[in-house]
Amino acid sequence: MKCHLRNLLTFLLLMVFILSPNAEAFAKKLIPMGESIGIQLQLPFVYVAHDVLLPNGQWLKKGDVIKGVNGSEVTSVDKIKQQLDSKELTLSVKQKAQEQRDISLTSEQANNILPFLKDETDGIGTLTFIDPESKQYGALGHQIIDGVLNEPPDFTDGSIFLASIEQIKKSSPGNPGYKISVIENNNIRLGNVKSNDLYGIFGSWESEIKNNLRKPIEIMKDEEIALGKAEIYTAIEGSEVEAFDIDIVKIEDNILQFVVTDKVLLEKTGGILQGMSGSPVIQNGKFVGAVTHMFVEQPQKGAAITVNEMLKKEPK
Fold first, then answer.
1. Where does 44-119 sit in CATH, by number?
2. Residue 111: how many CB atoms within 10 A of its CB?
3. Which of 38, 219, 272, 312 has CA 20 to 30 A from 305's CA?
4. What single string gives the DSSP state of each residue in 172-235?
5. What share of the chain is helix, strand, coil (3-state, %, to 5)?
6. pLDDT tens track for 148-202
7. Residue 26 — very low, low, confident or very high, per pLDDT cuts 50/70/90?
8. Are the CB atoms for 156 and 40 separated by under 8 Å?
9. What is the SS3 assignment for 158?
10. CB of 128 within 8 A of CB of 33?
11. Which CATH number fits domain 28-42+121-310: 2.40.50.180, 2.40.10.120, 3.30.1020.10, 2.60.120.320?
12. Any idea which UniProt keywords this protein has (predicted)?
């Protein structure tokens, strides 16, 4: 009997040990953000951003990857620039399923195509949260897909910067609006980008977390999320984050649907904009989730992922 009780006690202790990390996750607090950020991912290759007709009648096609120059591997635009001293350059070019081909150019011709070459992916999104304990952040709520490559890019380094909203193009039914932003503060990096996952980008926050920043708040359990009033935090002018009213109208698994009810936001933006992805959703003073999508035909309507699901980085 004593042996049985001892085994049972060991089993119960093991259960507590296994379950406790999940239990603690629900008690964890995060700082809700809402700032607009510029995102830059440094790629380990060079690709062509636009179709380019060359003087010899050949084309560099959008999405072509420059694999090498004069027999040397190419991993950046700078490495191509270093070869411009040569009178002639031979570019080794490949696009996905096609065979690699060589293109011969003069140094002047190669210099003329440099503006059409890229070795980074960049964009604008919204910072979702900072974990005050681990100094990790999350943003976007969805994965970055390179618009030219049409896939999540491999990257060697990534950075986020504070962005300021200069102008808004309003959303209207069938025509998604967007934010026009510029990077602030002399390109001071706020953090790195460690991963580009299905539920957003994640990395280490490298800037000081100031005392006047929003305070950490509790994460709402998924089963506590209710239909009705909530808020989103986002920036639509300069770098100031404001709270705007929404109504959560549908809850299905880890996805929320909501309608913007805030008259100020509807007047200025028409509803949800491209670049709002990652905006925190708050209900009853607790952290609920992050905006991920808009309904193109109904821009006042949006979707969000719960923050509990976002913290998984991708479906488990």
1. 2.30.42.10
2. 14
3. 38
4. BTTB-EEEEEEE-GGG-EEEE--EEETTEEEEEB-S---TTSPPPEEBPPGGG--SEEEEEEEE
5. 20, 50, 35
6. 988 999 999 999 999 999 999 999 999 999 998 888 766 789 999 999 999 999 9
7. very low
8. no
9. strand
10. yes
11. 2.40.10.120
12. Signal
User: b vs e for 176-205, b when ≥16 Cβ sit within 10 Å of the residue's Cβ?
Assistant: bbbbebebbeeeeebbbbeebbebbbbbeb
Domain boundary assignment for the chain = 28-42+121-310, 44-119
pLDDT digits (tens, 9 = 90+) for 234-264: 999 998 999 999 999 999 999 999 999 999 9
Could you give the CA distance from residue 269 to residue 36 in angstroms, rounded to a whole number? 15
What rounded mean pLDDT belongs to the chain? 87
To which residue do tokens 């700032």 refer? 35
Contact 267, 186 (CB under 8 A): no
